[in-house]
UniProtKB/TrEMBL annotation:
It comes from the Bacteria. Residues 4-111 form the DUF559 domain. This is DUF559 domain-containing protein. Gene3D superfamilies: VSR Endonuclease.
């Protein structure tokens, strides 16, 4: 477990720009009063953002999530994370850059469904 905590800390310091933008909107209970954590271990994975109280995981996908192999790997990852009782939503860097309000509305919608 220490290996995952150490890796999560490293990922927090090397966060991509799109994740920084989304984090500003999620942190400090800004969205629906919901507490989110970033780069948090769940099982053998480190998820981008998670609300433990609402069991919602938000994964931010960049260009490295577009091939058939990468899509299949993401699907397996989602299935495994969901086996822990979480609901996983995926957003792209492009969505965050071009339609942040839409991304936030979608996350609010998902939070309302949980």
């Amino acid at each position: 477990m220490n290996r995952f905590k150490s890796r999560a800390r490293c990922l927090r310091t090397e966060q991509p720009r799109a994740e920084e933008i989304l984090w500003r909107e999620l942190r400090n209970r800004h969205l629906d009063g919901c507490k989110f954590r970033r780069q948090h271990p769940i099982g053998v994975y480190i998820v981008d953002f998670v609300s433990l109280e609402r069991k919602l995981v938000i994964e931010v996908d960049g260009a490295t999530h577009s091939t058939d192999e990468e899509i299949a790997r993401d699907a397996r990852r989602t299935t495994e994370i969901e086996s822990f009782g979480f609901h996983v939503v995926r957003v792209t860097h492009t969505d965050i850059y071009k339609n942040l309000d839409g991304v936030l509305d979608w996350i609010l919608l998902e939070l309302g469904r949980l």
